[in-house]
Write a structure and sequence with these properties.
- It is built from four helices and no strands.
- The protein is mainly α and 131 residues long.
């Protein structure tokens, strides 16, 4: 049986594995962004879990409290959430640009289109060199 104290860590590890699996296994760029979002959420959970102490109170000094929870992980996670949202927005905007240029958001199709373009450019340079 999983201890309730370790449940956060187990959930974080499962989410990390799921996020990495999605990023590696899917060729759709939107799905890769979703996988990165799941991975980021798992890291947030993993980082914020030790910040809460059972029986701890917010860091307000009073004579009746002796155990306090550390607020620093919570503050850092707020910053990380903002950075994560900005990163996801940037990734989605790049995907929109890729869709406009290549007509697809599938990684395999983009690689095929790029390899065809490279062959055309190499052929053009070869013809230009020979003349």
């Amino acid at each position: 049986m999983i201890s309730i104290l370790l449940l956060n860590y187990w959930v974080a590890m499962i989410l990390i594995a799921l996020g990495i699996f999605i990023v590696i296994s899917k060729s759709n760029l939107i799905k890769k962004i979703v996988g990165l979002g799941i991975f980021q959420t798992a890291v947030y959970l993993l980082y914020i879990s030790p910040g809460k102490i059972i029986g701890g109170t917010p860091p307000i000094l009073a004579a009746s409290f002796s155990t306090y929870s550390n607020p620093l992980p919570h503050v850092l996670i707020l910053t990380a959430i903002v950075v994560g949202v900005a990163t996801s927005a940037l990734g989605l905007s790049i995907i929109i640009r890729i869709k406009e240029d290549f007509g697809t958001i599938e990684e395999d199709e983009i690689e095929n289109l790029l390899s065809k373009e490279k062959k055309i450019v190499c052929l053009f340079l070869l013809v230009k060199f020979l003349h």
